[in-house]
From TrEMBL:
Any one of the GO CC terms: endosome
Main location: membrane
Protein's UniProt keywords contain Endoplasmic reticulum: no
Pfam families recorded: EMP70 (PF02990)
Name of the protein described by the UniProt record: Transmembrane 9 superfamily member
Subcellular location: Membrane
InterPro entries named among the record's database cross-references: EMP70
Residues annotated as signal peptide: 1-24
Stretches that traverse the bilayer: 268-290, 342-370, 376-397, 418-437, 449-472, 504-527, 533-560, 572-591, 603-632
Amino acid sequence: MYFKDVAPPALLAALMAMPQLTSAFYLPGVAPTSYKPEARVALNVNSMKPVAAPQDARLHSVVAYDYYYEPLRFCQPEGGPKDVSESLGSILFGDRIKTSPFELNMKVNETCKSLCAAEYDEGSLAFVKSLIEKGYSFNWLVDGLPAGQQIQDKLTGTTFTSPGFQMGHESNAGGVLFNNHYDIWVEYHEVSGNANQLRVVGVVVQPSSKKYTGQVDCADGHDPIFISENEKSMSVSFSYSVYWIESSTPWATRWDKYLHVFDPKIHWFWLIDTAIIVVILVLTVMSILVRTVKKDIQRYNRLDQINLDDLSGTSALEDGVQEDSGWKLVHGDVFRAPPKPLLLSILVGSGAQLFVMTGFTIVFALLGFLSPSNRGSLGTITIVLSTVLGFIGGYASSRTYKAWQGDQWKLNIALTPILVPGIVFAVFFLLDLFLWAKASSGAVPFTTMLVIVSIWFVISIPLSFVGSWLGFRAKQIEAPVRTNQIPRQIPPVSGYLRPVPSMLIVGLLPFGAIFVELYFIMSSIWFSRIYYMFGFLFLCYGLMIVVCAAVTILMVYFLLCAENYNWQWRSFLAAAMSGGYIFLNCILYLVTKVQLSGLPGAVLYIGYSALISFLFSILAGSIGYFSSWWFVTKIYSSLKID
Ligand SMILES: *[C@@H]1O[C@H](CO)[C@@H](O)[C@H](O)[C@H]1NC(C)=O
């Protein structure tokens, strides 16, 4: 499927307006390629990425290196390596695909081909050794399919292909073994028995370490290449063999063996757990809405009647009203503009934009647009959606701001597309500087940064302005009750209704709803596993929205009952706390699953975690805020006041 088919017209127009900048980001389709026998099949190399080290199953680094990074001394193709064109999202997510010297010809077995001999000095040997110790792996692509290793899942007993294969491993004698020979097993499939239409449907590489003393013969029985501490210099010859195996797997299902559900039960278990919590919460909110509120209103209206008819009233009735009628007493203040309405409206505007973007992304994923065969499609779709949906951000922000009688509307229009994206970009840029300093290939190239900034300025900001303009032109959202001139005094709140305890309680539940999927997403980000359980993710996202809305509404109700009418910021911040929990969870993950040596790795890990948590905070906060707004409008509009 071609990405072009789904790219919105606005983006296409903009892409056409900037041909020089974007021509480097050709978006390749994933149509099948058929080869004739003996035709060359390209083997491309991606950057070296850290995966969990086998000795302790922990991640020791988050910094990727280019395959041709000088100290690695890997063999280059004649005339030097060339960049393979990639999508914008693919570049953003760290792919740096280059050509390689490996010669693969369809259906031609090669038993031993010598590549080159590389001379390592003390510094480069120490570097290679440190990468092997940190569990770095090769990431090769044959016809777009990642070369992997066969792995058996101990839990379910099934085998699957895990992309990437080890650069070497630690030996018991204190040093490391360095893999310099690669047995490449390529599976091919004949299209409907036609011997001239062959397709690549599987790639597995078995690396091994062979210390050649004379000829490069690939024979078994060579000693392994052992790099010990303080090794001064070494010459390493690289070699490979290629074996072509006929397979019955058709091209359409060639990715299936990479898609492995680790522990499927836990997803269901968690989903059902969350669903039960959702049902309980929603029933509670409904009972408040339907029963208490109705009863309250009836009683309140009756009280009004009695007060008018019979000024003496009945004390019993008033006593009954006293306990749960707090929310009605603040009817003259509940629609008072919150403090800092500008900031609030910008945050909830950006949150609404993120909310819609995440929803669309998950739906696209469900429709199969984000299949791993479509490299980098997640990044590309995210960028396209967040650009185009700048419209929603502007609209939500300006309508909110207008509803709270904000008068700095120019500032609102200008800051909405700048504040949150600016923070994201600034953090991203700072982290990129760290990667640059480490000479990592993960650093996003300057030209890519430039493209993103131009897309942002040329498309996102104008769209946001249009949204803001429409939002300000729209009729002001009227409060159902009149706001008094003089603000009512807020009695001090106690117990769980205080700001911090309420945030801690409210934030926990939405976090709980996505906790398990978060765990799998994190292991796919940091351990380069393929995440594709989008069905679960879709359900979890839905449950998270409902939980977030329901629990914030409950808090706002109790807050109003305690005669505290500062619900706007409280609802936003309480729901936003779930992002705080995500950050805590990332830190916990850092302690238990990751063991980063050195400050840059930790800074990068914490930086990216903080960025994602911040965005989730805004998203959840705006769910909390908008649902509370709906709830407050609902209950006060059913109230009859003079
Ligand atoms: C290549 O070698 C493998 C393993 O020895 C063998 O199974 C396969 O049939 C060979 N393929 C061809 C095309 O000769």
